[in-house]
Design goal:
The structure is a homodimer of 227-residue chains. Chain A is 47% helix and 18% strand. Chain A is an alpha/beta fold and 227 residues long. The first copy, chain A, has 3 domains: 71 residues, Arc Repressor Mutant, subunit A (Orthogonal Bundle), CATH 1.10.10; 109 residues, NAD(P)-binding Rossmann-like Domain (Rossmann fold); 28 residues. In chain A, the strands form 2 sheets. A 7-stranded mixed sheet of chain A has the order 6-7-5-4-8-9-10. In chain A, strands 1-3-2 form a 3-stranded antiparallel sheet. In chain A, α1 runs antiparallel to α4. The longest helix of chain A has 28 residues. Chain A is globular. At the A-B interface, α1, α5 and α9 of A face α1, α5 and α9 of B. Chain A binds a DNA duplex (24 and 24 nucleotides) through α3 and β2.
DNA sequence: TAGATTGTTAATCGATTAACAATC
DNA sequence: TAGATTGTTAATCGATTAACAATC
């Protein structure tokens, strides 16, 4: 009956950026913005902004533009930021600690309620009032507290089995920082942060730019113009 | 004269994943693999693998497949992993320390040679033999050592000006962890890691899956089948 | 009302998949 | 040689951009 319209991940991954820019405008006291103005700030096309937004309904007003606060709120709702998420961190090494210490996530409704590790030297330590527990306690904790998101910042050797256990215990999302691809039941959503991939991509860009520059220099010195 | 073929970022961003899988195969002692076998392991189409690789030339052999070691090396070269990169970290907070402590990058030729911060309590501290210096020393250091990559793990308030300075001092790439978009000259390549975007995307996926499940339950309970 | 800007359709462009001839 | 699998062209699919009628 209702139109089935699967929204592409390309669109979804642009939403947080819109959300961020709108939040900044809001803080500056800007109340309205047109797709053209926003497109210039964000270095995208106005058409894309309008297309993206209209996947979710009409948030603007012809002849006027978009109300910044309203649009910001609505995008937040689409992303699911109107609700809270209970999170745990599995693996309290440097990266786990870094995330635990960040306050910006909790502001957006992502609440850190548990920390787990195997290392006895870390167990008992507290970060922002959350104590590191032995990983043996994780099953009970996840079930009792209905934890939604697990942040995987542990050595990659144990990630696969941990992810499988967490899936069994009812976790909804895994934020995976290990260089591993997780194949879990579709009751569990996975979002990967592959830092090494990102760094390799930067290396590519650097080399590519170098090659382009050399090519340009060469054609200029020869006096050729290639399109 | 030579064919101009700009390779899309979609393709590039898949290369590190191929590289990782090939590395794992190599470690397992696998010497050859076909695009079909690899596609099954990686959950992509064989066609895509062959198309991706053939952007850079033919690495395989008809009737045989691909030599794992050779393909691994070649993808490494495409990504620019055959050379070393001198890196510094700007902002030695939790995240900066986490990256500094990670040994996996240096194995791939990304060498951390400098750490900078404004915090006097951090200055003088050492991580893996690299001492944290006052940020005042950064200009001289970058120029003298011909630093290629700066890792920006500092508060977002100072990122913009820092990026501009680094660009002026000849940096080639910025690995930006701040929730900020950097607009720098095209002599500098930027790769962003927006952790908050990633987490919001996970929130979306979780909600989306929830909605899908409810929809399915409903149509099943009513006995309707919708395609 | 006239001007502005959305929402939306149509056109273009690019990316992915399918198919198959080339060839090892 | 026969079988397998690549490299590559063609077909399909999806995403982006352009255009413009609807409308505030």
């Amino acid at each position: 009956m209702t139109e089935e319209r699967k929204i592409s991940m390309n669109v979804i991954r642009r939403l947080p950026r819109y959300y961020r820019y709108l939040g900044e405008l809001l803080q500056k006291g800007v109340t309205k913005i047109s797709s053209r103005e926003l497109s210039e700030k964000m270095n995208v096309t106005a058409s894309q902004i309008r297309q993206d937004l209209n996947n979710f309904g009409g948030f603007g007003q012809q002849g006027y533009g978009y109300n910044v606060e309203y649009l910001h709120t609505e995008i937040g709702k689409i992303l699911g930021l109107h609700q809270n998420y209970k999170m745990i961190i599995v693996g309290v090494g440097n990266l786990g600690q870094a995330i635990a210490n960040s306050t910006s996530f909790s502001k957006r409704g992502f609440k850190l309620i548990g920390l787990f590790d195997v290392n006895p030297r870390l167990i008992g330590m507290s970060i922002h009032g959350v104590e590191v527990q032995d990983i043996d306690k994780m099953e009970q904790f996840v079930k009792e507290n209905e934890v939604e998101i697990a942040i995987l910042t542990m050595p990659k050797t144990r990630v696969k089995e941990t992810a499988e256990s967490l899936a069994k215990w009812g976790i909804k999302g895994l934020w995976n920082f290990s260089p591993v691809d997780l194949f879990v039941p579709d009751t569990v959503q996975v979002e990967n942060v592959h830092l090494s991939h990102s760094l390799m991509t930067l290396a590519y860009k650097i080399n590519e730019a170098e090659v382009e520059r050399e090519k340009k220099d060469k054609s200029e010195s020869i006096g050729q113009i290639e399109e």
